[in-house]
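Late entry, protoporphyrin IX containing FE complex.
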Amino acid sequence: MDFVRHLLVFLHLLGMAMLIGVLMLQLKAGKEARLNKGWLHGSALQLVTGIALMLLAPLTHQDYDHVKLGVKLLVLVVIGVLAVVNVSKERIPAWLAPTMGGLVVLNVGLAVFWH
Ligand code: HEM
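Prediction complete; structure with ligand written out below:
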């Protein structure tokens, strides 16, 4: 089971990298650009890998803080809803990309500093 946990953490970290990469692309694309679909893919990957890590905790002998994971889940749901609502729009508001990026960074901070 150790290998499964490591594989999920590996994918979880790649998902984080994907979201930061998409943030860079979105900021580079400028004000006229539509929302990059990578936001949806990165959020979905974080959701699936995060929930799998959480559900497998008894088998992988991990004792995660459920309040912390609940807050991370809430932050990710906000990112996901913002992505779904805006992905088909011709134009996105200027605050959207910095806000979504800030929420991703917030979740990295929660993951690392909340003990
Ligand atoms: C934008 C969304 C997210 C980001 C950027 C993110 C980021 C991270 C990072 C950087 C770590 C590694 C921390 C470390 O090893 O010290 C981590 C671990 C973890 N994350 Fe997330 N996360 C996100 C969403 C979620 C969600 C929604 C859940 C589940 C509800 C979740 C569950 C976990 C768990 C269980 C671990 C510990 C893995 C382990 O070492 O066994 N994450 N996350």
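Residues 2-29 form the longest helix (28 residues). Will revisit in the morning.
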